[in-house]
Amino acid sequence: GNSVTQMEGPVTLSEEAFLTINCTYTATGYPSLFWYVQYPGEGLQLLLKATKADDKGSNKGFEATYRKETTSFHLEKGSVQVSDSAVYFCALSMDSNYQLIWGAGTKLIIKP
Amino acid sequence: NAGVMQNPRHLVRRRGQEARLRCSPMKGHSHVYWYRQLPEEGLKFMVYLQKENIIDESGMPKERFSAEFPKEGPSILRIQQVVRGDSAAYFCASSPQGRNTEAFFGQGTRLTVV
Fold it and tell me: Would you call A99 and B59 a contact, using CB atoms and an 8 Å cutoff?
């Protein structure tokens, strides 16, 4: 079946460090891929998405590239801030199905 | 345009009681999805509804759980005779079309069963 695997957290970094959160997927077909962010005490917000191979999603300094050959959608940011501390979820959706399939989430802690 | 509104934000129930979780979708959205997030896990799809119709309830437990989205009013997720294992965060999302690519999420209801 379809699934999403994320690197385990928590990930702890210092402010201005480079961030990578790994996400790989298994899917029969060509999914759309998403990163959602959940700030403390809040709901989920769509951070970025990509709908086909080689697409790059970007928002708020975050980027992720849809890599079909490695079935990956790693999240990156060049210089993190304390305000980026949150839980990040990778997810996929098949065009033929409206359900989002989620990774377990990666907690990111940024220290000043 | 208000976002997806869920209430209550926190709900405490004793074992055996009923829990009712409400979700008001964004204006103009007629598709609603419910997800459950167990501690330390990702979200799991529960049910997909359109106005007055259940489209897919393949993620719903077979017993004690039900959902509705009436013509008027919010969508309701109902859990009867709650057990400790029902403790989780329940998220609602809505979209204008039946595709999750445009889903907007509420802040969730955190259910604690004591």
Answer: yes
Rounded Cα distance between A34 and A51, Å, is 9
Q: Give the pLDDT score at A30.
A: 87
Place of tokens 């393949």: B58
Long-range contacts of A67-70, Cβ-Cβ distance < 8 Å, separation of 24 or more: A68/A30, A70/A24
CB pairs under 8 A between A and B: 59
Cα–Cα distance between B19 and B11 in angstroms, integer?
Answer: 8
Please judge whether B100 and A43 are an interchain contact, meaning their C-beta atoms are less than 8 angstroms apart. no
Alpha-carbon distance A82 to A8, whole Å? 20
pLDDT digit string (tens) for B75-85?
A: 999 999 999 99
The residue of chain B nearest to residue A34, with distances taken between CA atoms, is B101
Residue B84 per-residue DSSP state: G
Contacts of B32 (CB under 8 A, 6+ apart): B23, B25, B48, B49, B50, B69, B75, B92, B93, B94
